Amino acid sequence: MPTANASVVDRENLRAGVDEALARHVADLRETARVISADAVPLADAVERMLAGGKRLRAAFCYWSWRAHGGMPGDGREQAVLRAGAALELFQAAALFHDDVMDDSSTRRGLPTAHHVFADQHRATGRRGEARRFGDGAAILLGDLALVASDDEMSRAVAGLPEPVAQAAHSVFEVMRTEVTIGQYLDLVAQTMPWGDPEDDERRARDVVRAKSARYSVEHPIVLGAALAGADEEAVAGCRAVGLPLGEAFQLRDDLLGVLGDPSTTGKPTGDDLREGKRTVLVARALARATAIGDHAAVDALTRGVGDPDLDADGVATLTELLVRTGAVAEVEQLIDELCTEAFAQIEAQDWPEPARGALIALAHAAVQRTA
After folding, report:
1. Quick one: which of 329, 341, 343, 181 has its CA closest to 255?
2. Burial of 322 by CB count in 10 Å (0-12 exposed, 13-18 middle, 19+ buried)?
3. Residue of 313, 303, 307 lying closest to 275 (CA atoms)
4. What is the full DSSP assignment across 94-109?
5. Tens of pLDDT along 82-135?
6. Is 158 exposed, middle or buried (0-12, 13-18, 19+ CB in 10 A)?
7. What's the Cα-to-Cα distance from 164 to each of 34, 64, 276, 349, rounded to whole Å?
8. Where residue 1 falls among pLDDT bands split at 50, 70, 90?
């Protein structure tokens, strides 16, 4: 991730405060697990590994939005905002544990995914039953633990705040959780649908982008920070106007990195999205362009190859070349530029003071210019 984001996350006790809250959670989970049974301690280890690799992007958007709407370091609500940032990180961990199982991803942030780690432990210790099912079950439970923890952390964050502020903040968090879960389901549904009208394919892809990623990655964290500062409806609407297009651009960049990114930087094998059959805007655009010019070979290669779990490196390279040759990669880059133009115009329209304005602008650039 660009240095600009790292420096913004490290300012004003942001990363340290969020990490401290997360460390408390892991310590409490480890002690609870130890008291129940030594066999449960690996759950705490797995949660700790997942949390250690986060960029704290969502927590940073939340914090600097709070600062943009009147929050000051050291005031009575600072700890609430940092704990809300930790709740966002725990929720992301929950989503990633579950997402990795559904996609059968082999790596996350350059390390083996939790369901593979637990399956390997099952095999190494000669346990009974199917190792894969054990690994999947353990990872699902890890996601549940992280989800429960995120709710607990958010409840503690707003405890003691004025009731209208607490209600507004918790409402944002509740809507976010529901949207992401529905978005995850829509992602599963999209992967089961037969290839059809390219416009319909793209509509579904954009629905998934908005529900599963865009709002929870950028829009909701920005709105949450504003809510914790007691911002009015007009200010919250301004946050949404910034957050949704920026969040869409963020996810579209992720889709490009899933195909064209460097695995040593992204932490995931190139082509995983293609093997998993992700119905991205990128793939929808490639099919639309190939269909429009009557390139039946390209259409056939895309519809057969996307979703093939046995796709080898040569197959990934062939599909990647088609994504570039059809102009889909260039079109998605253009769409990212258009969404960024909209988002930055909305930022200009907000009366955000420094240093929060500069921090949010740096975070916005880092979100869409990232390489991981």
Report:
1. 329
2. buried
3. 307
4. HHHHHHHHHHT-SEET
5. 999 999 999 999 999 999 999 888 888 888 999 999 999 999 999 999 999 999
6. buried
7. 39, 21, 43, 26
8. very low
Dump pLDDT digits (tens) for 270-301: 888 899 888 899 999 999 999 999 999 999 99
CB atoms within 10 A of CB 65: 32
Cα torsion 1, 341, 255, 244: sign: positive
Instruction: Say which residue the tokens 């990195």 belong to.
Output: 257
Q: How far is CA 253 from CA 126, 128, 230, 282, 339, in A?
A: 42, 43, 32, 10, 11
- Which of 246, 236, 247 has the alpha carbon at shortest distance from 208? 247
Distances (CA, A) of 235 to 48, 83, 175, 244: 36, 22, 18, 15
Which tokens sit at 305?
């190859």
3-state secondary structure 150-171: HHHHHHHHHCCCCHHHHHHHHH
Handedness of CA 20, 25, 31, 34 (dihedral sign): negative
HEC assignment per residue over 192-253: HCCCCCHHHHHHHHHHHHHHHHHHHHHHHHHHHHHHHCCCCHHHHHHHHHHHHHHHHHHHHH
Largest CA distance in the chain: 65
pLDDT tens for 327-346 read 999 999 999 999 999 999 99
Q: Which tokens in the block code for residue 65? A: 């939005």
